[in-house]
Amino acid sequence: MLCGQATGVITDQKTNEPLEGVNITSDSFGTTSNEQGEFSIDISEGENIQFSFIGYKKIILPATKEMIVQLEKHAIKGELVVVRGGLSDELLQRSSSSVSVLDHNNLKKADGSHFQDVMATVPNLNAAGGTSRPRYFQIRGVGERSHYFAEGPPNFSVGFVMDDIDLSGLGMAGMLYDLDQIEVFKGPHSSIYGPNALAGLISMRSFEPMDSFKSHVSLTGGTDNIQRISGMVNIPLGKMLALRIATSSGSGDGFRKNKYLDKTNTNERKENFIREKLLIKPNDHFTMILTALNAVLDNKYDAWSPDNNEDLFTYTNQHGEDSQKTKAYSLRANYNKNKMNATFITSNSETDLVHAYDGDWGNDDYWLQAPYNIDPNVTGWKYEFFDSTARSRSNQTLEGRLQYGNVVVGYFSKTLTENDNASGWLYGGDATLAASEFKFDVSATYGQINKNISDKLKLIMNLRKETDQISYKGTASNYYYGPLDSVSFDLDHDLLGGKMALQYLINDEMNVVVSASQGYKAGGVNQHPSLATENRPYDPEYMKNFELGLRRYTDRSTVHLTGFYAKRQKQQVSISSQQNEGDPNSFVFYTANATTGSLSGLEFDGSLQLNKMFSLNGSLGLLNTHVDEFTFESDSAMTSTLGGREAAHAPQYSFNVTVDFGREKGLFLRMEVTGKDKFYFSDSHDEISEPYQLVNGHFGYNAGSWSLKIWGRNILDTRYATRGFYFGLEPIWNEELQDHEYPDKKYISYGDPAHFGLSLDFAFD
Questions:
Q1: CATH number at residue 440
Q2: Where do runs of H (alpha helix) occur along 156-261?
Q3: Residues 739-757: pLDDT tens digits?
Q4: Domain membership flag for residue 372
Q5: Over the stretch 258-288, which tens digit does the pLDDT of each residue have?
Q6: What is the 3-state composition of the chain as percent helix, strand, coil, each rounded to the nearest 5?
Q7: 711-741: b or e for each residue (b if 16 or more CB lie within 10 Å)?
């Protein structure tokens, strides 16, 4: 029998901040608290009310008409993990997005300096090799793979953002030192993140300045002359200001030896960055963070050989370059009071990229031997090819966002300009010079609403309308096949993305989410001068995605489980085609629209605290992809058919299992096993990799203010492929024809072999 209503306010016991979304249940009714922590629930005489919320101890209180409820925090797994890459901050446990988070504890335990070293823990995340560090990534089999000239405008399927700075296509800058957390959003997120999120987005966020002095120094040394020194200092500057500076400088010779040049460092890495962050907080309502980043990666590139790195030897007569120089800044200002939250974000980055390599992978002595028999004194020509692409990119973004209660509206704009210059000294000695100019303008409006349908059911909807304007001009001179006319295009695309999700709170530990979304990726223009004019532009791609996810958190374990199915329309595929059979000079890269494609799968990641000393972490990605059959013009007289199979760089499974042992102080140990299934190297041929498993680990001692660690990566020295091509490179002498032929052959580049090292960390507080 009802006797009235209980009303009240729920706050945090220590901070007195109101708590939104607390589950409130009586014997017959249930509700949740609003943004101010307020609630109202029907009650019967003598009834008790239960209050439960993620991260807080559950309490039961006698029902009264006016209640003041304070909840005490309860240490459970993931309690402090907040997803910050969306339109508003949210607890990972209550996120409606499919997202994997590597927090600072995970990153601290990692034995690496780059995002490449930790990405195996994220299910269905892959990267194609071919550079000293991956620039592009694939999520669920969707994403760019190549870095060569002529592959379209600088828009990408997987975005890459660091401290609000758009570095999409510039993943080489993904250094790990002094990072707070990494968020990997999977599936179409164009409605939230815009033009570079068809397949997902990687958001890296460094630590923010604090109101107390802290400093840290890290020293690392290892095999192949690995050296790295890193340091951080956090300085409070009065009541309103704080400054944090982090820097890291490292190098390594690489693991390949160039037998012709007799050098061990033709694939070396030299990576340096400095980041400054200034926090301005004049009061409790207003916060501003200014970030400046300077990254210099002066790496070499000598990775391929005609014998497929049989002994990890290369034979080039000149090593290449794989460098990136980025100067960038971002400004985030936030005003938060009552129900209103206003955010302003702007960023600017200037980047110079160079990718150059010895395209014949050999030297005069190498090609003189059988079965090549190229003697310049007899043939009258050298087999020599050096290719170089230089890119200059400028990127400015501006975003304004207003949140009132559960409603978010915003505006986003982006202007990206890129100048590409390519040169290649071809096998006959003739030069190719090609240049491209891109301008990519984006403007978008978006909105999102979160609505509580009941005490357990929430509806999340967002929508984004975007306009892309692409201008392009391409020129080529001294071309191998003769002079070519300049080509220019102006493209306009109106794009629409959105998402609708329902989240059901089973209890304070577990919830399920079902969602439907549409993502998009802009069209563009292929740059390669040998392509016919009508084959240069390509259309935007759309993806429709459906997901069912479950999240469960207890004081000892976490479980994230997601099933997904997606349909791709006008699917963009990367094609590497030898336009004229047997002619290496006609080998081109370009993007084309297939008909349709699909992908489906399952993703799991979780953790289990076995006891105070042992913990277990793991992830599993299962993936099924399909590119429907399509045709394209391979040369002037031939039409080829591709597709009807799995997508490239989309292994059917990937996994990670990690065991950690240790206390807060004392000895610690970690063992990690990662693995991937075989995958196609390209959408253009049928060559595949081999499945592989890698073992990593470390052990050491933590004294609190300092720690010492001995680490190993790929401890068993497993050979595994990161990139592969199938084309005619080697000039094989044919006695019958008395001429050279270029038969197609599979060429493979391999990942890093075993590396071992020592790391020493000091903290000064």
A1: 2.40.170.20
A2: 190-193
A3: 888 898 999 989 999 999 9
A4: yes
A5: 999 999 999 999 999 999 999 999 998 999 9
A6: 5, 60, 35
A7: bbbbbeeeebbbbbbbbbbbbeeeeeeeebe
